[in-house]
Amino acid sequence: MSTKTTQTLTFDKVEPNSGLKAALSKGRSGVLAEIEASGLKGRGGAGFPTSVKWNIAAAAKSPNKYVVCNADEGEPGTFKDRVLLAKYADLVFEGMTICAMAVGAKKGVIYLRGEYSYLRNDIEKVLANRREMGRLGHDIMGQKGLDFDIDIFMGSGAYICGEETALIESMEGRRGEPRNRPPFPVDTGYLGQPTVVNNVETFAWAASIMSRGADWFRSVGTEKSTGLKLFSVSGDVKEPGVYEFPMGITVAELLEATGGSGAKAVQIGGASGHCIPADQFGRALAFEDIPTGGSIIVFGPQRDMLEVAANFLEFFADESCGQCTPCREGNVKLMEGVELLREGRCSSAYLRELVGLGETMKIASKCGLGQSSPMAFLSIVDNFRDEIMGRAAVTA
Amino acid sequence: MLKTERENLMDEIRAIAEKHGRQRTALMPILQEIQRNYHYVSDFAMQAVADLLSIHPVEVHGVVSFYSFLKEKPQGRFVIRLCRTISCDMAGKERIARQLENDLGIRFGETTADNNFTLEWANCLGMCDKGPALLVNDQVFTHVKPEDINDIIENCRRRLSPYATQHKEEHLV
Question: What is the ipTM for the molecules in this complex?
Answer without folding.
Answer: 0.93
